[in-house]
Amino acid sequence: MVCWLFKSEPEVFSLTDLQRAPKQTTGWEGVRNYQARNFLRDQAKQGEKVLFYHSSTAEPGVVGVCVIARGAYPDPAQFDKRSEYYDAASTPEAPRWVCVDVTFERALKRTVTLAMLRAEPKLAQMQLLKRGNRLSVMPLTTDEFKSIVKLGG
Question: What is the rounded CA–CA span in Å between residue 49 and residue 5?
Fold first, then answer.
């Protein structure tokens, strides 16, 4: 099974926000990078595990585990003129952007910081740790997923 790492700035959407969402589920909308979109559209499947990563914070890191509750579908924000994710070039007949629904599974006992990830030899090839990687959605191997969850307690 493929696993995933989804990044979000906690000021925009945090793990706590997901916990407070109705049925602890929400659309993972606003992905506006083509490679990340392609991962969601072509590879992410219902039932796959997701690590929730808080980015752009004093101490970025993995804070929780989610599951994909619904596979890719057109991101409704792309059609909403009031949304910061509005895309005038996208149409309902030919949507450019997709989202998936994610459901909260659990918070980790401790944040697995970026420094902790870098210090773990088993994670040396992890896409997140590669130079210049800024994707908000990226695949993980099952071993990477298990190693990170173990670090988080």
Answer: 9
Q: What is the DSSP letter of 122?
A: G
Give CA–CA dist 101/76, Å, rounded: 12
Pairing of strands 25-28, 49-54: unpaired
Residue carrying structure tokens 């989804």? 6
Short-list 23, 4, 20, 19, CA closest to 62: 4
Is the pLDDT assigned to residue 49 strictly greater than 80? yes
CB 53 within 8 A of CB 61: yes
d(CA 41, CA 34): 10
**pTM of the prediction?**
0.94
Q: Residue 41 has what pLDDT? A: 97
DSSP 33-99: -HHHHHHHHHT--TT-EEEEEE-SSSS-EEEEEEEEEEEEEE-GGGG-TTSTT--TT--SSS---EE
Euclidean distance between CA atoms 85 and 29, whole angstroms: 8
Q: Look at residue 151 and give its three-state secondary structure.
A: helix
